[in-house]
Amino acid sequence: MDLDILKVKSLSKAFGKLQAVDRVSFTVQPGVVKSVIGPNGAGKTTLFNLITGYLRADTGEITFKGMNITNLPPHELNRKGLARSFQIVNIFPRFTVFENVQAAVISRMGKSSSIVTSAKNVGREEAFQILDRVGLSEQAGYIAGTLSHGDQRIMEIAIALGGRPELLLLDEPTAGMAPEETYATVALIKRLVSEFGLSILVVEHDMDVVFSISETIVVLHQGGMLAQGKPEEVRQNEMVQRVYLGEEITREKGQ
Ligand SMILES: Nc1ncnc2c1ncn2[C@@H]1O[C@H](COP(=O)(O)OP(=O)(O)OP(=O)(O)O)[C@@H](O)[C@H]1O
Ligand SMILES: [Mg+2]
Fold first, then answer.
1. How many angstroms separate the CA atoms of 214 and 120, rounded?
2. Mean per-residue pLDDT for 52-73?
3. How far apart are CA 181 and CA 41, in angstroms?
4. How far is the CA of 233 from the centre of ligand 2 (A)?
5. Are the beta carbons of 228 and 26 closer than 8 angstroms?
6. What domains appear along the chain, each with residue ranges and CATH number?
7. In sequence order, which ranges of 31-148 are alpha helices (DSSP H)?
8. How far apart are CA 228 and CA 34, in angstroms?
9. Neighbours of 255 (CB within 10 A)
10. Which is the closest atom of ligand 1 to the Cα of 172?
């Protein structure tokens, strides 16, 4: 039996001469958070785009729940239980928060949604449940574009949950958030795993967040895998310290 929910095997993608993702291999086990870290331009978003069908891989294989999903389009992956959020907020800004989530639920239901329910009510209960789960019930009637940046990012997670995913990929979920929003997002990620059994693959720059949520970490550098392992192993890895954490220190010093 296959115990990994996701398996990435020797995945590569080049843009012209630039090897953006270079023979990357790792697995994600069910019900845990795995983080992908690495300096700017390391290939993290490209890796996500490959896994979620937004880019075609040059070589390599991606297996989800034992199925070969390499190069399947995003909507098919969604149907199979794989969802993502984007590094840049990606919502319908003129619709309400509720409508954004309801649209995601309806999209998942597809043709199976009941023809006896009026369109306005389709997915209503589930959309409200999701908003409750992520802590956005009170903002349900707000126009999405008027929410704070942090709440828009949370709403993006709510939209992804509308697809009832088993595996969720989050690209920098706390980017641009105030500290209390970051804290709430970390709590939400932990809850999605512990209460709802989701598996989560996350790209994150905030090291406090990474070390607090991750079961394991993959470190990318110039497209390749620099290291992977438990947070403590990664923290103590000399190459990681030199290449990645060194850069963090430089950034913190404002150099
Ligand atoms: N569509 C594209 N066409 C050409 N080059 C690209 C494309 N997308 C990404 N790249 C390049 O590939 C490399 C990896 O980019 P990617 O966005 O995956 O990095 P990242 O690790 O997500 O960085 P960041 O931390 O800044 O988000 C970069 O050098 C980038 O400029
Ligand atoms: Mg990126």
1. 39
2. 97
3. 26
4. 24
5. yes
6. 1-81+166-255 (3.40.50.300), 90-164 (no CATH)
7. 44-51, 74-80, 97-109, 124-134
8. 10
9. 7
10. 27
Average pLDDT, the chain: 91
As a whole number, mean pLDDT of residues 17-46 equals 97
Geometric angle at alpha carbon 222, from 22 and 241, rounded to 5°? 120
Q: How far is CA 189 from CA 56, 154, 203, 213, in A?
A: 28, 10, 13, 8
Ligand nearest to the CA of 38: 1
- pTM (two decimals): 0.90
Task: Outline where DSSP puts E strands in the chain.
Answer: 6-15, 18-28, 33-37, 59-64, 67-68, 82-85, 167-171, 199-203, 216-221, 224-229
pLDDT for the residue numbered 246: 60
Q: Is the dihedral of CA 140, 141, 144, 150 positive or negative?
A: negative
Quick one: average pLDDT of 114-132? 82
Q: What distance in angstroms lies between residue 46's CA and the mean position of ligand 1's atoms?
A: 6
What spacing in Å lies between the alpha carbon of 197 and ligand 1's midpoint?
A: 31
Measured from the Cβ of residue 98, the count of other Cβ atoms closer than 10 Å reads 22
Ligand 1 interacting residues, C-beta cut-off 6 A: 15, 18, 20, 38, 40-46, 87
Using the predicted structure, report yes or no on whether residue 145 has a pLDDT greater than 90. yes
Please choose, from the candidates 162, 184, 179, the residue with its C-alpha nearest in 3D space to the C-alpha of residue 107: 162
Q: Give residue 198's Cα distance to chain centre.
A: 11
The arithmetic mean of pLDDT across residues 153-174, rounded, is 94
Q: Is-contact 150 181, C-beta < 8 A?
A: yes
First to last CA, the chain: 50
Beta partners for 216?
A: 34
